Amino acid sequence: MWRSLLARTVFGLVLSFQGLARAGQETPAPDEPPLPEFVLPTVEVIGKDVPDAPVDSAQRRDPTGAITVIDARERAGEARDTAELLGGSASLVVQDSGGYGQSKSLVVRGASSNGVLVFLDGIPLNGAGGVADLSLIPVALLERMEILRGAAGARYGAGGLGGAVNLVSRAPSSRLLTSGEVTYGSFDTVMAHVAASGALLDGQALVLLHGGRSQGDFSYRVDELPALDDNPLTQEVRTRNDARGGGALLKYRHGLDGGGRVDVLAELSLEDRALAGTVQNPTASRRQDQTRLSLGARWGRPFGDTGEGSARGFFRRDWLDVTGGTSGVDSGAQRYTVGGVELEGRVVLGRNALAVTLAGSSESVTQAVGGQAASWWRASVMAMDELSLFSERLKLAPSLRVERVGHYSLLSPKLGASVDLGHGFGVRANAGQSHRAPSFLELYIRQGLLLPNPELKPERALSVDAAALWRDDVWSVTAGGFAAVYENLIAYELYPPNLAKPYNFAAARVWGAEVELEARPRTWLTATSSYAWTRTQNRYGDPRYFGKELPYRPRHKWVGRLRVGPDWLNGRTEVLVQSAQLINRVGEARLSLPSRTWVSVGASSTFLHRPDLTVSFDVKNLLDARTADYTGMPLPGRAAYVTLAVSLDPSPSEDSHVTSPP
């Protein structure tokens, strides 16, 4: 198919340019706007505005929210995919179905992956099924990730039951910069990207090409007769785990009179991967071929000393082809299209900072099987008032979004508050309501043995959270709790004789606690840690499920990370501990995924300058802990990778030898 050929072409171009550079170690040009001072993870600074952040950034959209910002440049060369970076944050659980290129989605604070919104520079990435697949977003594209945990409906719209993630792509430079990186490792995995940035037509431009592939097969041991004690394990090989893909990112930035700016983005992603199916129903030849084209443009400018505004337009088209299925189950080709505009303004009037957002979009999906098609419009208006009192030590942030999604009318209010107690201490609290309208697939499109249900109601979440904060020049700590009630949750139930159909069932409860810690006592020493304790309870009236924990929600998750050393030689280690999780609603312990402890270690050295040459070595899952995905398929064990990166800045400057801080 032409998309597979194009993916191979892009991948070939990437490998042919691997002698160029790594932009993750670029020094921003003096005329570029500085990035917000966020690190991994960032603990909120109470009572302090972030003047350098754009009006539509997470910290400006929700000034009292539970926000973590991850600087992807600090992890350049060591993370294999976007999900790996996000998985280190509190209350974020990655649902992984395999290695490189296999589907990856997020569960945030107990909300399903279709209740978490994901954006790329403000362009929505959730597809027709309501789930955003993180495997289509390579780390090479990203500059930072903005994560909002909790009710996100008021600020981001329908779908944000558990939170929202905005992936911010790399910014172009006014200086000529070239960069490249190539990685090779376990399971015959190869990844690479090249990038070039510089001045163009009175502005700055960035071109980035990326590609990769993985054979993916690996061996594992299985107990074929678990009911018998001391039964010998059988060696098996996990197949149908291969994937390949590539893509491109084009960005252009142009400054305007009066401090305004225009940003234009075009992003193409292509992926072809095998689909293994489930343990009970494995597939022999099923494959998925997916292409995504995203286009976006944003204009923004200040108005005097107290106002600022922005306008954004976006378009996204997904092509999804699934082949090799059995008769009556194959879904065939699917096309999903979304496009829209968003206007946002903010003005400071005395103690009040008023923000208003107007948004409208259109969505459509077509399915080859049966000539099925559906489309609808979305429209919303949002208003927020950020009220500052007592010399800005107390902030109140009420907001309200009124939204029309298809034939559903949704109301999403939120109230946030923060208090700066002085000496680095503060507290924040939020309460809000969010909705998720049923997806196109749940409402209208039959997929094999899954039937649609046009009578579905929107899901609703009522959420509260609160946290105490402390920060100084070395330490930052956040500790708090959260709770949510989910109503009209959608789940597929058996529809006799052999079909399944989605229905709304009563409710579920989620509550828990989060702790985030960061320490930077030296420029060459960084330590971070996050812990989340999450409890869930099914409130569905069926006695088989009532009071049971929800599946795929581990109670405990802890991540600790340590990085030591300067750029010329540094080492790092990361430990992720995640408790067992159920795989069905009955709550039987034998039907669960076991707890896991993943230890990863690595080292990097930038041993040459002008051009900067960096070599990295990483071992993932050092202890070879074996576990399975949410369908029961085994996941890869220990893996090792070597990365070579080069960056070149031919323009003379005083800081040309400065690299990114460790």
Automatic annotation (TrEMBL):
Task: Write down the Gene3D superfamilies for this protein, in alphabetical order.
Answer: TonB-dependent receptor, beta-barrel domain (2.40.170.20), TonB-dependent receptor, plug domain (2.170.130.10)
> What's its membrane topology?
Multi-pass membrane protein
Keyword terms of this UniProt record: Cell outer membrane, Membrane, Receptor, Signal, TonB box, Transmembrane, Transmembrane beta strand, Transport
The main place the protein resides is membrane
Descriptive protein name: TonB-dependent receptor
List, for all copies, the residue spans of the domain called TonB-dependent receptor plug: 61-164
Say yes or no: keyword tRNA-binding present: no
Any single Gene Ontology cellular-component annotation: cell outer membrane
Query: Where is this gene product found?
Result: Cell outer membrane
What superkingdom does the record give?
Answer: Bacteria
One MF term in the entry's GO annotations: siderophore uptake transmembrane transporter activity
One of this protein's GO BP terms? siderophore transmembrane transport
The positions making up the signal sequence are 1-23
What positions does the domain TonB-dependent receptor-like beta-barrel occupy?
A: 266-622
Establish whether keyword Signal is in the entry: yes
Instruction: Output the lineage of the source organism.
Output: Bacteria, Pseudomonadati, Myxococcota, Myxococcia, Myxococcales
What is the organism field in this record?
A: Corallococcus aberystwythensis
